[in-house]
Amino acid sequence: MDVTAALFEAVSTAPTAETANENAAEPAQTLTEEVADMLLQRKSLSPQAKKQFGLFRDPFENDIEQASDLFMTPDARAVREHLWAIARHGSGFLAIVGESGAGKTTLVDELKDRIWREGAPVILIEPSVRRMEDNDKKGRTLKSGDIEEAIIYSLDSTASPKRSAEARARQVSSMLEHSARSKNSHVILIEEAHSLPTPTLKHLKRFLEIKAGFSRLLGVILIGQTELKTKLSGQSLEVREVVQRCELVELPPLDAHLEGYLRFKFDRVGADPAAIFEPDAMDAIRARLIFSKRDSKARETISLMYPLMVNNLVTAALNQAAALGFDKLSADLIREV
């Protein structure tokens, strides 16, 4: 399923969507495919807009170069520390889900950067997901044997995986125990985890059960779009044991943190948000990113106020304002983007 289709299949359950809509300048709109495409396509600030608004750097382009460039909501900060705890201790099972542009990859990048900066003895095991699909008709499924090979290569790049499944399993356990004696922790990190097939999800529980005495030798972190939430919903009896052990966290939209997010982004490039946004612009941005979606039972209000969508909407508004010769972003202009 492509990203645009995912927006129609998955609905954010964050209760803040309705709260944000209370102050919106317009009623919720119906989400269309054209609108979804517009919000997801990354946009760049035009030279004319940079000149018009005194933006010598694009506030949303290459915007994260170090940890201090990260805007952290309380929810994101909690997820960040949870990731760190699993990585540092090498135990636990966490799935992070969110829409495209919600900040999942940014959190993973921050985790890797933190491990490097602090010199933490953490070995991240990242099986290749380049061609991964959830069935072999669409692509190549990631199997438990692939994860075992990734563990072996991560612990010793010169090692050769054993041929038989039994020998390879024993090899993995032995190598993890040896590495743990050197005070290393180990975490399997799988991005695009919404494309994991059900059998592999079930097998992840068995990786969690690899121990040396009482000490667990592996943690597991899954990163995926909201289809992963459906797979781990508990409705499928096939994955019930996984659901019981996996903590699932959904990244919510910015909603109440919209003003803080934009202030942070523009302050970072030396721009004053008050000189760029009219007072009514924030409510207009909210209104443009709050939508309604009718399912078979009722109409639901959803928020797509995720960083990527906000970035694209504001960038498009800045470009249009510059083209029209406007000095600030007004609610009327944002409504027309």
Run of helices and strands: HHEHHHEHEHHEHEEEHHEHHEEHH
Please give the CATH architecture of the largest domain: 3-Layer(aba) Sandwich
- The CATH superfamily of the largest domain appears as P-loop containing nucleotide triphosphate hydrolases
What is the terminal-to-terminal distance? Answer: 27 Å
Low-confidence sequence ranges: 1-27
Structural class: alpha/beta
Provide the spatial order of strands within the biggest beta sheet.
3-4-7-2-8
Radius of gyration: 22 Å
- Proportion in β-strands: 5-15%
Please tally the helical runs, counting DSSP H or I stretches of 4 or more residues: 15
Mean pLDDT: 86
- For this structure, what is the CATH class of the largest domain? Alpha Beta
CATH topology of the largest domain: Rossmann fold
How many distinct domains? 2
The helix fraction, in percent, is 40-55%
Shape: elongated
Number of strands: 10
Q: How would you sum up the major sheet? A: 5 strands, parallel
SSE topology:
Blueprint: H1 3-9, H2 16-22, E1 29-30, H3 33-40, H4 47-53, H5 74-89, E2 93-97, H6 104-118, E3 122-125, H7 144-155, H8 165-181, E4 185-190, H9 198-208, E5 211-212, E6 215-216, E7 219-224, H10 227-231, H11 240-245, E8 247-250, H12 258-268, H13 281-288, E9 290-294, E10 299-303, H14 307-324, H15 331-336
Parallel strand pairs: 1-9, 2-7, 2-8, 3-4, 4-7
Antiparallel strand pairs: 5-6, 9-10
Helix pairs in contact: 1-3, 4-14, 5-6, 7-8
Question: Could you describe the 3D structure shown?
Answer:
There is one protein chain. The chain is of the alpha/beta class. It contains 15 helices and ten strands. The strands form three sheets. Strands 3-4-7-2-8 form a five-stranded parallel beta sheet, with helices on both faces. A three-stranded mixed beta sheet has the order 1-9-10. Strands 5-6 form a two-stranded antiparallel sheet. The two termini are 27 Å apart.
